[in-house]
Prior knowledge:
With about 130 residues, this protein is of the alpha+beta class. It has helices spanning about 5-15, 70-75, 95-110, 115-120, and strands at about 20, 25-35, 40-45, 50, 55, 80-85, 85-95, 125-130. About 30% of the residues lie in helices and about 35% in strands. It contains four helices and eight strands; from the N terminus they run αβββββαββααβ.
Amino acid sequence: xxxxxxxxxxxxxxxxxxxxxxxxxxxxxxxxxxxxxxxxxxxxxxxxxxxxxxxxxxxxxxxxxxxxxxxxxxxxxxxxxxxxxxxxxxxxxxxxxxxxxxxxxxxxxxxxxxxxxxxxxxxxxxxxxxxxx
Length: 133
């Protein structure tokens, strides 16, 4: 998604009152640990609840390579999540193909361009589930 540090700062400063609702959908903040740098990286991402978890899409706008945050969570699946003012530690995992088949339409409803992103790449775009630790 095309978000900047300003989006992250505003979201954090207001407990999500500013930044959670974005262009007709909603966002959370995902903080991963850099797999090479070891530094914390925070990324705003569109999400939707799936049971007790939150689903996010590792689309990178349909690029052939996955987003850095996805590579980071593969190296260290313990992440920090903020949904509005709710901050918590979560374990991130890639949804199975069966789970993805059920969740993908839900995510496309949140952001219709996900279908366009998938059409733009041969890479299967993963859905990640963030489950409270």
